[in-house]
Amino acid sequence: MTIHTAEGFTFSVSEIKPCLADNMKVRIIAQFEADLTPILEILFLHFRNANYSRNLVCVTTKRAGHSTTVFGSGKVAMTYLKDEQEAIGQLVELAKTFSKAFIYLDTNGPAESDIVEKKESINALQIHKLLPQTDCGDCSESGCFAFATVLMNGEKDIDDCGPIKLRKNADKREALVKVIQPINLDFVREDRSDLAEFLGLKS
User: Fold this and answer.
1) What global pTM score does this model have?
2) What distance lies between CA 80 and its chain's CA centroid?
3) What share of the chain is helix, strand, coil (3-state, %, to 5)?
4) Degrees, nearest 5: CA angle 44-65-186
5) Structural domains in the chain plus CATH codes
6) C-alpha triplet 139, 143, 148: angle, nearest 5°
7) Contact, 37 vs 178, CB < 8 A?
8) Three-class secondary structure of residue 13 per DSSP
9) Of 61, 67, 60, which Cα lies nearest the Cα of 25?
10) Mean pLDDT across the chain, nearest whole number?
11) CB atoms within 10 A of CB 15
12) Which of 55, 91, 170, 177 is least crowded, fewest Cβ atoms below 10 Å from its Cβ?
């Protein structure tokens, strides 16, 4: 088993199997040597398409056909990958997100419970109300409600809606982003040299 290092984290891939829905793709189980529980809610608020399970202590996100589940224990399950090489690349990117989430936690504290609960309760109807509601088909869906549904499922992104990118709909887009991505870790600085020590990953 090969140990990989990224952003101060170490991880290994412990299982690789064919995907159940497509045996030309693989699903993997990996283990990060870190307690990710403190950042799960932050990750939930960062991932635009995500579900948070308090019982299983995990966050699941879907994007571009991939499904990724992050457990507080450091276990990560990913599906619909081309091969192990792609899996490693995805896990390295995930490590970058974990790093930013811990920096966010250290800087801003835990995610606010009311914001977490608000995102947990969001549904397609609420998302539909924030869309331009032109039913133009630019997104290749039958209408805005259908787009709201696939947006929630992680099958499409906000900017797959052409009208919402127009200047006149800037307020709608901003409101929609705030609903489905209350925390954006993309803007968190990554230049923290003592991160590994902060995480307790080195003495």
Assistant:
1) 0.86
2) 16
3) 40, 20, 35
4) 40
5) 3-111 (3.30.310.10), 122-180 (1.10.15.40)
6) 75
7) no
8) strand
9) 67
10) 90
11) 11
12) 55
99-123: per-residue pLDDT in tens? 999 999 999 999 999 999 999 999 9
* CA dist., res. 159 & res. 173, Å (int): 9
Sign of the torsion formed by the C-alpha atoms of 77, 74, 84 and 48? positive
Angle at 71 between CA 39 and CA 37, to 5 degrees: 30
Q: Are 93 and 7 in contact (CB under 8 A)?
A: no
The tokens for 177 are 């982003």
Beta strands 3-6; 9-18: pairing state = antiparallel
Runs of H (alpha helix) within 27-78 = 40-46
Question: Identity (one letter) of the amino acid at 33?
Answer: E
Helix axes 170-180, 113-120, angle to 10 degrees: 100
Residue among 74, 71, 2, 72 nearest 37 (CA): 72
